[in-house]
């Protein structure tokens, strides 16, 4: 989401009431229209680049062994390898997952999130400002 000191220059566009309603239905919590449209455009961009064969969405993650819903799904770009295995990737969360099925890849993504969450939210590991920032990011994406 946009922070107060990073406000982009604003503009306006005319859209149909139907499109506005669809965008509004995607807003969660304190999200702005920018946040919603960025997620939608990132998804479309993944397909436009041609390097990926699609995207899959991680809607839940493990936190301390408990399955938690995310405020917004984590978008995993999907590449199909020559041997029909998959590679799922997300730069923001530093996920690079090699798997034989999408279900296995999503489960591995949940486990990777849990490991990162345990490491970065441990107060003993937050000696560096980047570790604190990472902990805040991981905590901020969990619903409730």
- Helical fraction equals 40-55%
Beta-strand proportion: 15-25%
Number of beta strands: 4
The string of secondary-structure elements, in order, is HHEEEEHH
Q: Which whole number gives the mean pLDDT?
A: 86
Extract low-pLDDT stretches.
Answer: none
> Judging from the principal axes of the Cα atoms, what is the shape?
globular
Alpha-carbon distance between the termini? Answer: 17 Å
Q: Please give the largest β-sheet.
A: 4 strands, antiparallel
Radius of gyration: 17 Å
The largest beta-sheet arranges its strands as: 1-2-3-4
Summing up helix and strand content along with how strands pair, one would put the structural category as alpha+beta
Number of helical runs?
Answer: 4
Counted up, domains total 1
Can you describe this structure?
The chain is an alpha+beta fold and about 140 residues long. It has one domain. About 40% of the residues lie in helices and about 25% in strands. It has a four-stranded antiparallel beta sheet with strand order 1-2-3-4. Strand 1 and strand 2 form a beta hairpin. It is globular. The model has no long low-confidence stretch (mean pLDDT about 85).
